[in-house]
Amino acid sequence: MVERKIKTVYDVVCPFCGTLCDDLEVDIDIKEDSVIEVRNGCQIGTKKFFSSNPSGHRYLKPRIKANGEHKEVSWDEALDAAADILVKAKRPLLYGFSSTECEAQSKGVELAEILGAILDNTASVCHGPSLLAIQDVGAPLSTLGEYKNRADLVIFWGSNPVHAHPRHLGRYSEFVRGYFRKDGRNDRFIIVVDPRNTHTAQIADLYIQVKPNEDYELINAIRATLRGVELDAKEVSGVSIEKIRELVEMLKLCNFGVIFFGMGLTQTLAHHRNIDAAICLTRELNDHTKFLLEPMRGHYNVTGANQVFTWNTGYAYSIDFSRGYPRYNPGEFSSVDLLIKDEVDSSLIVASDPASNFPAAAVKNLFKHPLISIEPHETPTSAFADVVLPAAFAGIECEGTAYRMDKVPLRLRKVKEAPGECLSDKDILEKLIEKVKEKLGE
Amino acid sequence: MVEIKLKLKKKPELPLEADIITPDNFVGKSVADIKKLELYYGKEVVKLGDFFDISGKSTDINDTKIIIDGDLSNVKRIGENMSGGEITINGNVGMHVGSQMKGGKVTVNGNADDWAGAMLQGGELEINGDAGHYVGAAYRGFWQGMKNGTIKVKGKVGNETLAWVNGSKPGKRFPKLICGSAGAFLGIHSHGGIIIVEGDCDRCAGADQIRGAIVVKGKVTKILPSYKKIGEVGEIELPNGEKLTGKFIEYSGDHSVDKNHSKIDKKTGEISKSSNGRLYIAA
Ligand code: SF4
Asked: How far is A112 from A117, CA to CA, in rounded Å?
C-alpha cells in the first residue's frame, strides 16, 4: 500500500460564489500536490477545488494559435504576441475580472489606462442594474452579520439561494441562529417572491408568485399601499390587492427586515428600475421599522471588481479610457453592447467565459477580432483565443483579496502550488503591462 | 444666415466622437482651420478634415448654420454643449446628438441613437425620424435631467425618455417633449416635465413622477397601479400655461412616491396622499 501524506489547510475562503464562506477545510496530498477532500463547502464550491487538480482541461503552458491550432510556446513569446495585439488595437476591450483577486483587478485598471481601452467586468451582465439604481437613489445596505443577528423578516426577491448561494441560508439568512434570533429558523419569517416555485420558495413561510417581468408593478403597488393609498386595481402582477395589503402589514410589523434580491430582479424587463423601486420601498419602510436590502452577488469577487474599479476610476464597470480619462456609460461602453455593434477590434478576457453567456451576436463579433484569454483551464472562450495565458486559480493556488457580496474584504488562501508554468493573474498582467510599455516606448 | 457644409467621406468603422462639431467651435474660423480641429476615433486623435469634406464660413455664432450630410450613425456627440446657431443633419446620427445643449437648434432628418438631447438645458432638438432610448434623460447618477428647451421627435422614442426631467415654475423652466410614440418608463422620476405623446405609449409611463404632466393621445399598454383615476376632462392646462383640448381621462400620480407626503391637509390635519403629477390618456 502506498502511504499518502496529507496536509490540511483550515479556514480556507471559498472562491466560488459571493457568499465567500470562510470556514472550509481542504486536505491536500503533499506528494501529488492535489486536493483530495474539502469539508464544510457546498457542492458547487467543493467542485471548484477539485477542478484545480491536474486534468486534461488545465493549461500548463502558454499557447498561441497558429493555422487554427493551439501550440505551446514560451511565456516570452506568448506575452509578446499578446502585447502586439493590444498595442495595435484602436479600441481594445478588457473584460472579466470577477473571478480573480483584487490585486489582479487593479493591474487590469492600470493596463486599461495605458492602452486607452474599455474596461468592464461581469457586473455588466449581472448586477450592473443594481449599481445604476444605487447611483440614482442610493441604497440602505449593511453587512451579512447584521442580517444574521437581527433580521426577523427575510425576503428573497428573484433570487434562489438554495441553488445559487447554497450556504447563504445556513450562514446568514435562514437557518442560522443569531444574537437576537436565538431560535434560528423559527425566529425568522421568510418570504419568497418569484415567478417560479423554486426550492427556496418551497422552504419559505410565504410564497408570492409574481408574473414574469411584472415585478416593477408589484413593488409600485406595495409602495402605494404602504403610503395608505387605495388602489383602483383589484390585482397587480398576478397578486390580489388583499394579499398586497397583508404583505404590507407584515413588512410594517417586523423589527428588522431585509430584501435579498437576485438576477430575477436585475435581469428581467425594467432591469435597474426594478431595483430603483425596491430601494425606494426599503427607504420608505424605514418610516415604520428597520429595513435594508442586499444584492445577491454571483461571482465570488465581482463585488471586489466593482470596488477596485471604483476606487481607481470613480466608476464600477463599463469604463472607457479612450480619451485618456475614465468615462462611464453602461449601454455605450458595456461589453455586450459594444460587441453587438462591433465596436471593439480586440479583446483581453481575464478569468471569465463570455462565449458561454453572452448573446450569440456578441460572441460572433468577439471571435472575429484578435482575442487573448487569461484562464486556468479550457473554456469555450479560451478554445477560440489567439493567445492563451495559463493562470493559477486565485484563492486555491495563490493568495489575494476578495470582497464578499456585502463588501467585506477577506483574504484568500493558497492551499497548493499551481501546476506547470501557470502564474497568478496578477503576475501575468504585470508582465503584460511591462511588455506593452516596452512596445509603446515608455 | 451663413452656412458651413460638412460631408462625411465614408462611414467610420468605429465610433467617431464629434463633440467638436458645434457652431461655438466653428465660429470665426476659416475652412482650413476647421479641417484641423481634433476629435477622437477610438483612442486615436484625428482631424475633422480626415473624415469630412468641408466648405463655407462663419463669423457670428447665432448666424451660423452647419449642414452635415452622410450616414452619421457611427458619429457621436454632434452639437454637444452648443449654445447657439443651427445644425442640420441629413441622415441617421449616432448617440448623444445635441446632448446638454444650451441654445440654438439641431435638426436631424433621419433617426437618432440613444441619449439624444440628454440633459438639455435650452434650445431645440428636432428629430424627423425615430430616436433611441434615454431621449433628454439625465446621465447616470444625475438627479436633474433636462431642465429647459424643447425636443420634438416625429417617430418613436425609446425607454426612459426624459428620466429625471426637472422643470420649475418659479424658475420659468418648462422642459417639453413632443413625440410620435414612446417606450417604457416615459418620464420616470419627472419633476415637472411636459410630455405629449401623439400616439401610443408602453408600460410604466410616469413612474415615480413627482410633478409634471404626461399626455398620451393614443393608447397606453398598462397604467401603473399607483395612478388614480380622477375623471374625464375636456381641456388640459399644462404646467407652462398652454392649453390642450380633447377628451381625456385624468389620472393623478405617482402615488407611490414618498415625497408627496410633505403636504398636510389644512382641514383635516392629515397627511395628504395627493400627488401633483398628472397623466392624461385619450378617452
Ligand atoms: S455557498 Fe458559495 S462561497 Fe459558500 S461554499 Fe458554496 S459556493 Fe463556496
From this structure: 5
Q: Residue B104: helix, strand or coil by DSSP?
A: coil
Contacts of A362 (CB under 8 A, 6+ apart): A335, A336, A339, A340, A354
Dihedral over Cα of A427, A430, A436, A437: its sign: negative
A438: Cβ–Cβ under 8 A, 6 or more apart, which residues?
A83
This model of the complex carries an ipTM of 0.92
- Ligand 1 center–CA A43 separation, angstroms: 8
Which helix (H) or strand (E) covers residue B75, if one does? Answer: strand B75-76
Chain B interface mutation, best of A94, A114, A219, A223, highest count of B Cβ atoms under 10 Å: A223
For residue B273, give the nearest of A117, A223, A229 by CB distance: A229
First-to-final CA distance of chain B: 45
CA–centroid distance, A24 to ligand 1, in Å, is 9
pTM beyond 0.90: the answer is yes
Question: Cα separations (Å) of B51 from A35, B45, B69, B99, B190?
Answer: 59, 12, 12, 22, 39
β-pairing, A387-390 vs A63-66, is: antiparallel
Closest-CA residue of A relative to B222 is A217
Distance, CA A426 to ligand 1 centroid (Å)? 24
Give me the residue label for grid cell 383640448: B245
What pLDDT, in 10s, does the model give residues A69-89? 999 999 999 999 999 999 999
Instruction: Take residue B85 and report the three cell numbers written for it.
Output: 446657431
Residues of chain A above pLDDT 70, percent: 100
Distance from CA of B15 to the nearest CA of A (A): 7
Of B95, B164, B260, the CB nearest to A332: B95
Average pLDDT, chain A: 95
Q: Which amino acid is at A267?
A: Q
Please report the atom of ligand 1 found closest to the CA of residue A13. 3
